[in-house]
């Protein structure tokens, strides 16, 4: 009755807007990027970087931390792992909101189009963060917030369509299957 329509009107005005994903784009110029080889997860001195080094680098890029290791910096003396290359232009797109798995698959497929002509990208990444205070994580376990609430996975896709899948969960969470 009237109560139901009042509720619907409340949700349509307030909740639907909140669920609409927010998209932000930024262009990073002259970005130092680690050199990666799809078949070399551990990395090799002077040839390629490891998966752990890439993951750490991604954290710095997401948080807009300077990569040039200046001693005067109070925030970070982090530097890009070796070997690295300078990329003239890199695109960073962030989508914030509730995103269903089908949309993530769609995003992955669209990202792979970057490997078409002209073949400029050697690799690209797609990272999916769960909310730090999400009640659930992988499998059937509750998500343990404790300190950081880590709850994410990252695809690294290469031009030959090989890929790496990196996952991070808190110490008290079940690991994914």
What does it look like?
InterPro entries: RNase_P_Rpp40 (IPR013893). This is RPP40 protein. GO terms for molecular function: ribonuclease MRP activity; ribonuclease P activity. One of its GO terms (biological process) is endonucleolytic cleavage in ITS1 to separate SSU-rRNA from 5.8S rRNA and LSU-rRNA from tricistronic rRNA transcript (SSU-rRNA, 5.8S rRNA, LSU-rRNA). With 177 residues, this protein is α+β, with helices and mostly antiparallel strands. The chain has helices at residues 2-19, 51-62, 101-112, and strands at residues 22-34, 84-96, 123-129, 151-158, 163-169. It folds into two domains: 21-97, no CATH class; 99-176, no CATH class. It has three helices and five strands; from the N terminus they run H-E-H-E-H-E-E-E. The strands form two sheets. The chain has a three-stranded antiparallel β-sheet with strand order 3-4-5, with helices on one face. A hairpin with a 4-residue loop joins strand 4 and strand 5 (163-169).
Topology:
Layout (H helix, E strand, L loop, with lengths): L1 H18 L2 E13 L16 H12 L21 E13 L4 H12 L10 E7 L21 E8 L4 E7 L8
Antiparallel strand pairs: 1-2, 3-4, 4-5
Major sheet characteristics: 3 strands, antiparallel
Instruction: Give the tally of structural domains.
Output: 2
What's the arrangement of strands in the largest beta sheet?
3-4-5
Shape: globular
Which consecutive residue ranges, at least 5 long each, have pLDDT under 50?
Answer: none
Class per helix and strand makeup: alpha+beta
Give the tally of β-strands.
5
Radius of gyration: 20 Å
Strand content: 25-35%
SSE topology string:
HEHEHEEE
Tell me the helix content.
10-25%
